[in-house]
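S., here's the first fold you wanted:
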Amino acid sequence: MFSKQKTILSHSTYEKFTGMDSGSPAPYTEDYNSTYSDDYSDYYENPLDNQLCDKSDIIKFGAVVTPVFLWIVTLLSLFGNSLVLVILTKYENLKSLTNIFILNLALSDLLFTFGLPFWALYHIHGWTFGDEACKAVSFLFYAGFYSSIIFLTIMTIHRYLAVVHPLSDLGSKRLCYGSITSSAVWIVSCLAAVPALVMHKVQRFGGVQYCEYTDKRWKIGGTYQQNFLFLIALCVITFCYVKILGTLLRSRSHTRYRTVKLIFTIAVVFFLGWAPYNVLIFLKSLSDIGGIWPFTECPVSKGIDFAFYVCRLVAFSHCCLNPVFYVFVGVKFRSHLKKLLKKLWFCQAGSVDIQHRSSRAVHSNGEELSLY
């Protein structure tokens, strides 16, 4: 029926080779279809193989778009989040609970960002950094991923308490609350990233090295862990924003209507960024578990893989969008940025420092010191 010289890429081989069996960016090489097999059992067992499902166009799309996109996100995130840290430490009161969370969010986004250059190069050349770097980069990436989502949720809860329950006792011990909460978030995030540290290893296939999970069960478990955390965050954020919007809409303050617009934007960006990605990694996990229809159909499988590439890039770009939607739209941030630019480019350090000290003296109480 088929000669043994026929080039065959089984579904499991394709998933392994392109990295699309996991949430990590996939390496690509022109040799993607150069694997030969004398054993056709896999070919007949998998419906995708029976159809000779050609996904070379999807692989090439990912090979061109993913590295470029990841480098752009890396540069924007490094610039944006570093600028946030500079503004916070130079002009703001870090005893403010909101500012403490913004500081940690910027740090978690930077931690997430540190893995992107490695993955951009990984997508082009395969993994060339060794086994220890594979484990370390995977751990740092997932720790940044989890801490970013948790801090977004914590910030939402804080906004909820400040708006819906303004008399709650957060102001008097805000530094203590901020330190304890931030430490707890980092501990939980690091513990959640431990499986990635332990179970990632460099593997060689077809002349290319890969940094992947060594066990499919751990890989699927990691996917469900991401889904579970996202669902919890989604439920909490939805509940809090519904309550916040209800409270603010009952207010006739023009300033509070602007806050409604900002909060609505934040919620929409969060949902659009992470929801499609989490749906796609869940659907791909169903394919890993077994041949579940219609995911075994070639058009459906190709559509999911293409959507996976796109949704993953959109989700990863959230680390560079956070400074825009959480900080850059803030009136105080723009004011601080102007002061910083004047100091850097127009040598007006003296007047800037005087304005800065007077501003902090006037706003020495409460959460007004935040960048919102």
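And the second, which I think is the more interesting of the pair:
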Amino acid sequence: MKKRFVSFLMVAAMATSMVACGSTTDTTTEVTAEATSSETSEEQAYIEETLNLANNDEVTWSYDSEADAWIMSIVSAVAYPEIEDEQGVSVCVPGAYVTGIDTDGDGEADVTASSYSDAVNGTLVIDYEAEIVSSNGQVYTAATAPVIVNTGAAGYSSSTNTEAATTYASEGYINMSCGNRGKNDTATDEDGNEYYTGDAPSCLVDQKNAIRFVKYNILLGNLPGSTEYFVSTGGSGGGAHATMVAATGNNSDFYDYEIEAGAVGVYQNEDGSYSTSVTIDGTTYEISDGVWGCMAYSAITSLYEADMALAFEYYMDTDYDFGTEFKEQLAEYLSEEYMEYINEQNLSVNEADVQLDINGDGDMTDTISLTIEYDEEKYADTNGYGGTYVDFYLAEFVSNLQWYLDNLDYAEGWTWFDEDGNALSDEEVAAMTSEDKAEAFIEGRYAKSSSGGDMMGGPGEGTPEGAGPGGDMEGAPEGAGPDGASSDGESEESSDRSFDNSDVAANSAGDTMDVGTPDEGTTQSAGTTTDSANYSTYEEMLESYQEDIAEIQAGDKYGNNIVDLYNPLNYIGDEDTDDATWVRILCGASEGDISMFNSLNLQIAMLSAGIDATIDWQWDGGHVPSEILGDSLSYYVDKMYGEYVDGAETITKAEAETQTENGDATEATGTDISSWVDYSDTSSVSFTVADAVSYRTQGASKTVPGFDVMDYGQEDYVFGDSDSDARHWSEKLLEVLEEHADVLSELFNSGN
């Protein structure tokens, strides 16, 4: 930052000197403008020179012979990093694309895979003729390979820089890892004073800046890969940011933050406009911070809707116990607020786009206007709520269960049991039909493979924790069904990537972070009759919340409402946004970290904008579930590449292999959902909205979902100090708190 600061002082000094010497106003303005223009050009040149990998004497390359991949050491993605350990980037390049490393600048490979012994300084010598055929049959070269962007920010926290994993080398992808600033961050100013930083949109901006860096160096020929086919992926808060990267591509609302950090390919002109291009060898190239595709796992976004959406979903379960009268009453009011909010949006969806018969008329040719209606008698089993919007929700749920049942032949290593709880013999397993497996799944007569997910998910082995899909969570309701199901919110998992009301969590680099405020852990008294451990009276709580909202609405240093910046729904389809081509969001159907309505709303918005948007709600899956049953990130990327890139291979899922040996589990661990589901015909199962929300609430991984608005909140925007709560800063919630203060104040912390 020092060079930038000094140069601006020089411009100011020149202008002052000219005025002092008696220059006319016109002359002063003209010279100052020229100086400003010169300064802008000099700064742009400095940024582009600094971020050109060919000029970086410190970058090294390491070779992994097992994966046949070259890994770049961590380098700064920006010219003016605030926290160097969190604003870096690394890439992993498949070995087939690399002839070797040029150590002396003559363009020849001096170190090759066969002669490699230790990390080496230098630049890649790229082989643009080599081809890699992926496991699904797609063909890539160094010029056409997709770039996988791993977004961290689990819990919206900071992510320490980590070297890129070799996960996708065999698939032909370039794998990219980047750090980011975020919640709980501190930095030191020029006077040595420590200050909190990492406010929104820092996480997102740092990821965007890393994308710009890699695209720039691809254009320079320093890295292989296609600037056209970047794919963001991450889980939980990382999934939220993968989604937001895809939703906010190259939107100018984020330029000031990128410019402040010294990102490449985004500059402010003297007239206040922006330039997003670089010139290389006389040719001008546009650089976008957006992506072509997105694979998001349990995307915790949009937080703007999160509290009222989850309240609405849980309130539709007439048997759900909110723990206190205050929380239940708050849920009722938030549900009303959510109905009004949705109905104001004028939402609609084409049945053909989602391949669902939403209105049940036997075809998928209609455009459905999506609304919520309240009728206490008509929808008594869902506390009075129904309508076409809820019908769409149910249709998605039923469709996702049907997909699961239809693909059970892809299950690998599962253990199947008979109705008496005895493991089947290998011969019996080999003889199972698809219908047999569907019935066994619905009745809970199975145990998944002890090795975790059946297929490679998003960021795989070696990827920072929280950056992508974790293990195969058994996060569905326990017990025999609605009557016997557990509502304690506990979930089993084979790899811990969830954040289920623990006092600490790991961010995407595996760092431990406190949940709640920067200096304090969570203060929410989950499972007790205490509504708030921070506030003794409703009036005190309300006043504090009003102050918090006012602070957000006043704007940050650039005048922006940071809650609005982090709402992807504000940017999808906007004329100032480079929309992604395709997005897929995978959630665990029984996770409690966010409502299923959030991903539904994202899909609706994306489809309306012309984006190929898919949502998958994985049955028996918890927070950040693994890809299973023949699906994988690589399969989906290859499939989308085949659909949207001219000349690419058309990809179809490989045939399932018959399971001939039973697994080694000694008892069934599956969830019996037979009392929820009508499976008289396993090729066309069905259940009700009441069944769906019962499944949701009783399998959730958070004890009091949606009500971390009082004292508890992982996903937050402003991190303040030890006296400030971490919350979702919801204007809608504030409206409810103010409008119904007379009722809510009597219930708050009443012990009931």
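Why I say that: The chain has 18 helices and 29 strands. The first strand starts at residue 60 and ends at 64.

Talk tomorrow,
H.
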